[in-house]
Amino acid sequence: MSPPASAAARDRLRIAIQKSGRLADPARSLLAACGLSWRESRDRLFCYGETLPVDLLLVRDDDIPGLIADGVCDLGVVGRNVLLEQDGDRRGNGRAPAFREWRALGFGGCRLSIAVPDAWQWQGPQDLSGKRIATSYPALLSQWLAQQGIDAQVVLLSGSVEIAPRLGQAEAICDLVSSGATLSANQLKAVQTLVESEAVLAGPVDKFDDVRGELADLLLRRLDGALRVRNSKLLMFQAPRDLLAELLPLLPDAEQPTVMRLDDGDDVALQALCHGAVTWQRLEELKRAGARGLMVLPVEGMLA
Ligand code: AMP
65: Cβ below 6 Å to ligand 1? Predict the structure, then answer.
């Protein structure tokens, strides 16, 4: 089993995801939560969609925007940082946009930030005038420097950017930061965010005008449902009807709860989709306020 060679007139949707790395497992789990399952090729680079005609191509994440631009893949899961950098690079070279963000996916969060040595008394972006800044994101950095009206030198490095100041290659860096642990280990501090990034579903600029359009719409509907309930729980309990006024304020992050009257008098059963954490503490508060038979259930999908 191998992918068809040509991109033209496909009746299956092909999604590129990272083969290995931070985004690989969450991307696959999210697509699996949309009801997709696959059979893997022997080289484990291509996964044939079994439940829907939606196949996966497992690649390096940096390759994903280009694969979409070339029509080799229809969609891709990639960091916004990679997508914006490659879009900026294309625009900088006078080429038309060839991909865009279709959905933010809520994982792989990080920031593209300027970081400087701990000892630097940072006053603001103008501090960077005349300095060298090491980065693997030259397009985004140059764009930001131009917007700020700062004349600085962009030093392109493909990796280990955080050691550039210690090696004397640059005075500052522009790199991805999530926890900040790598920066502090290198005596650097983040001082300015350029891009708030997370994993996104990327696709072509225009919609598909063949059967892939229907498949993409179906996938997006399922994705929206899966994303909406990702951190949600269904909370169910019973309570005397006259206590509802005290119980409902304890569910501030719940969608319009469903209240059902029970046959035997003044009690009601309530179910609510809660988008925040439903902690033991919360359950105990509800119990103290008169709720009983409290149950918390996982939610796997939602179709609005
Ligand atoms: P990697 O698996 O290291 O190639 O990273 C893939 C993607 O994960 C990056 O392009 C970012 O979108 C995202 N990411 C999230 N946190 C970080 C981080 N601390 N460093 C690098 N990438 C990160």
Answer: no
Compute the distance from residue 158 Cα to the ligand 1 centre, in Å. 14
Same fold, 5-108+199-229 and 110-197: yes
DSSP string, 203-269: E-SSPPSSHHHHHHHHHHHHHHHHHHHTT-EEEEEEEEGGGHHHHGGG-TTB-S-EEEE-TTSSEEE
Pair 268, 262: CB distance under 8 Å:
yes
pTM score of the predicted model: 0.88
Predicted confidence at residue 275, as pLDDT, reads 87
How far, CA to CA in Å, does 86 sit from each of 82, 90, 134, 135, 154?
A: 6, 6, 18, 14, 16
Just give the CATH number of 5-108+199-229.
Answer: 3.40.190.10
Q: Give me 91's structure tokens.
A: 């625009």
Domain boundaries, the chain: 5-108+199-229, 110-197, 233-297
CB-ligand 1 contact for 142 (6 Å cutoff)? no
- The fold adopted by the segment(s) 110-197 is D-Maltodextrin-Binding Protein; domain 2 (3.40.190)
Cα(108) to ligand 1 centroid in Å equals: 7
Encode pLDDT of 20-30 as tens digits: 999 999 999 99
Task: Count Cβ neighbours within 10 Å for each residue of 128-159 and write b for 16 or more, e otherwise.
Answer: beeebbbbbbbbbbbbbbeeeebebebbebee
Just give the CATH number of 233-297.
Answer: 3.30.70.120
